[in-house]
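Friendly challenge for the regulars: who can give me the structure tokens for this chain first? No prize, just bragging rights.
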Amino acid sequence: MHGAASGAPAIDATAIVVPQLSAAASNGLALFERNCASCHGRNASGTDHGPPLVHRVYEPSHHADFAFVRAVRNGVQAHHWRYGNMPPVEGLSDKQIEWIASYVRDLQRANGIE
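First reply, four minutes later:
Bragging rights claimed.
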């Protein structure tokens, strides 16, 4: 396992810098809130059910954008944190997943994760 051996602590969502979003990230924001935020938190800050995505573990050099597509399509076996496995997310097109990834990447860049 990389990172913490247990669950990553949620980050105070209000402490996350939210930049002016690109067009793709703006599209991704609403999709993230509907499909991802219940586990990954507001502003991708994490919850008791899923890790923060504004975290160095998810920087592009470790998790390329295609990792978002695979995670949504296939789910993810727990390997960084002890939240349990992530199930696949139904009903999202590849373009919608791309927009979600753009939203997360915009948040990461604004918070020093590149």
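The two ends are 21 Å apart (CA to CA). Residues 13-110 form a domain with the Cytochrome Bc1 Complex; Chain D, domain 2 fold (CATH 1.10.760.10). Your move, everyone else.
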